[in-house]
Amino acid sequence: MGLPMTVPRDLHRSPRLAALFCAGLLACARVADASAAASAPAPNDPVREVDTFIGTQGEGNTFPGASAPFGLIQVSPITGHYAGYRYDDPKIRGFGHSFLSGAGCWAQGGQVAVLPVTGSIGPGGDFDTSDPKAAPFDYRSYAAPYTHDGEVGEAGYYRVRLLDAQGKAGGIEAEATALTRAAAERYTFAPGTRTGRVLVNVGQANEKHEVVGSVVEVVGNRIVQGKLVTNSFCGGAQYTTWFRIEFDRPFKAFGTWDREGGVPGSRRSVGVQWDVANGAWLEFDLDGSHSITATSAISHVDAEGARGNLEADGKRAGRLLGFDAMRAQAQAAWRKELSSVRVEGAGGADRAVFYTALYHALLQPLTGSDADGRYRGYDDLVHRADGWTYYEYFSLWDTYRSQNQLLAMLRPQRARDIARSMLAIHEQMGWLPRWGYANFETNVMTGDPVTPWLVDLWRFGALQGREREAWDALWQNAGGRPPAMSRAQGRAGNDTYIADGYVPYDRAYPSKGMDADQHHGGSATLEYALADCALSQMAAGLGEGDAAATLRARAGNWHRVWDPGVRDPSLDFTGFPRPRIEDG
C-alpha cells in the first residue's frame, strides 16, 4: 500500500523538520522493546505507514527510493531535479545508487544511473551506436515516462511502472530494495517481451552533479563494475565512488558508449571531464518470469570494498540473495527501528506523517565503513573501524537541535559509534567539521553546530571513555581558528568574537566553501554564544572551572547584537538581533 488517501501527496517535510516533529510527538509516545513486532507485519505496520513520497514535492529534497536505516547505499529514481526525484517531473532518467535526504545544496548523489529499456541498440537502432556524438545515450534523451498509478514508496521498498515511448501502459515495472551495504533492483518486462536491455550510465548522475571522470567495465557475462569521480555539494571537493553490479542471469550481448558513440562488444569505456557520455548496455534473453534482478554495492574505499559489500549483504552462501528475500530483510530492519516508538491515539494521516518523519530521521548519517571495516578518512587515507561502524555525511547544523538527541535516546550504541566517528574526523583533519560530506569538509552553513551536537552526545553518555578527547577538540574549536591551509574553516569569526564579543558582518571575508561566518555576522554571533553556553556545561562537568567561567561569560554575547530599539507595531514586538560591522 502507498499513502492513505487522507494525506496529500504533496505534503513535504525535510529532515530539518522531521526530527522536530518526532521529538514533539514523543510526549504522546512510549519507547517500546526494539525487538517487538520486528519480523511479522502488525495491523498497524509502521513500515507500510511510512510514505517516502512525503518531501518529494517542491524543494523538500527527500528521495522516494529504498535505503536501509543509516545505509551506505540507496536506490532511487532520477528525474530532472538536483536532489534526484521530484514528484511532478514527467520522466525517469535512471535509478541512481547514492542519495541524501532533505539536503538543500545542489549537486548531490545519483551515481550509476541504471535504466531498463526495450528499444533496439545498434547502428540505426533506437539507440543508434553510429551517432558520432552519442546523443541517444544521454539520459535526457532516453528518459522514460512513468505513472504514479501503482507507484509505491515504503520503508525499504520502492516500485514504479515505466511507460513506453508513447506514454502508454504495458512498459516495465521497476522495483528497488536495500540493505546496509548492498541493494537490489528487479525489472519486470511486459509479457511477450523476448529481450530485456539495461543501460548502466556512469557519466551522468543527479542534475547539476558533475561527473568529473568515470570508468565502466563489463566482466564475464553477469557483472558490470567501475568507478566515478564527482565534484559536488556546494563547492565541495572531488570524491570517488566504486561500484559493482551482478545480475541474476547472463547477458547475451553487451557494449559500451563514450563521446564518439556506441561500440557493440566493447568491455571497457572511460569518460572524461565535461563529457556526459559514458556507460555500458546489456541485453538479456527473458524467460517466463520476464524479470531481471540486479544486485549492487558501492564503496568510497576501492573496488575491493564494493565487491566485499556485495558479498556481505547481497549474497548468502555465495549466491545472490533473491529480491523478495532482500526486501523481507530490509523491511524487517525498518520494522525494528520504527517500532522503537509506538504512537497511541493518532489517526491514519497523523501516523503516516509521524512514521515518515521518524523514517527520515533514521536515514542519516550514512554508514561509511565497508563490510571489512575500512573507510576513507578526512586525510584521504584508508582507515579501519575494528568492532564499530564509521559514519559519514554529517549535516550538523540541521541535526544538532533534535535529531541528534533522538538517536541518542533510541539507539545509544549507534550514537556512540557516531560520536566516535566525529572524533576520528578530528584526528584526521586536525579540526572538527561543520558539514562533513563523504570524506571532506564543505564549510556550509553558519556558526558552530558541532559543539552543541557533541555536548549533547556527552550528556547522553555517548562519549564515555572519550570525554577528554572530545573536550580537547571542542576547546580547540572554541578558542582558535583553523590555519589558512586547513580544509576546515571552523569558527572563522573567533578573533573578533573573543576580543569584542561579536562576529563582524564582512561580505568580503574569504570563504573556504560556500559560507563564511563573517557573511552572516549576526547569526554567527548567536550561534557561537549558544555553543559556548553548551560547552560551559561540559567544562563544569569535567572539572574545567576556569574554562567553564569563560564560556559562561561568552554565552551572553548574544546581547552584543541585540538592538532593543527595533519596534514593529504591526507584529507587536520590540527588539531584534542586528549584525555589527567591524567598527562596532
Q: In a few lines, what is going on in this structure?
A:
The protein is α+β, with helices and mostly antiparallel strands and 584 residues long. 26% of the residues lie in helices and 27% in strands.
Describe the protein.
The chain is α+β, with helices and mostly antiparallel strands and 584 residues long. It contains 14 helices and 33 strands. A hairpin with a 4-residue loop joins strand 32 and strand 33 (573-577). Helix 1 (15-25) packs across helix 6, helix 10 packs antiparallel against helix 11 (467-479) and helix 10 (450-459) runs parallel beside helix 13. The model is unreliable at 1-40 (pLDDT under 50).
Characterize the largest beta sheet: strand count, sense, and whether it forms a barrel.
Answer: 10 strands, antiparallel
SSE-based structural type: alpha+beta
Q: Estimate the mean pLDDT confidence.
A: 91
Helicity range: 25-40%
What are its keywords?
584 residues, alpha+beta, 10-stranded antiparallel sheet, 5-stranded antiparallel sheet, 33 strands, 26% helix, elongated, disordered N terminus
Indicate the topology.
Elements: H1 15-25, E1 29-31, H2 46-49, E2 66-67, E3 74-78, E4 91-92, E5 94-96, E6 113-117, E7 121-122, E8 127-128, H3 139-142, E9 144-154, E10 157-162, E11 172-178, E12 183-189, E13 195-201, E14 210-219, E15 223-231, E16 238-247, E17 253-258, E18 261-264, E19 268-271, E20 279-285, E21 291-299, H4 303-314, E22 315-316, E23 319-320, H5 323-338, E24 341-343, H6 348-361, E25 366-367, E26 374-376, E27 382-384, E28 391-392, E29 394-395, H7 396-399, H8 403-410, H9 412-429, E30 435-437, E31 440-441, H10 450-459, H11 467-479, H12 494-500, H13 521-541, H14 545-554, E32 562-568, E33 573-577
Parallel strand pairs: 7-8
Antiparallel strand pairs: 1-24, 2-3, 3-5, 4-9, 6-13, 9-10, 10-11, 11-12, 12-21, 13-20, 14-15, 14-19, 15-16, 16-21, 17-18, 17-20, 22-23, 25-28, 26-27, 29-30, 30-31, 32-33
Helix pairs in contact: 1-6, 8-9, 10-11, 10-13, 11-13, 13-14
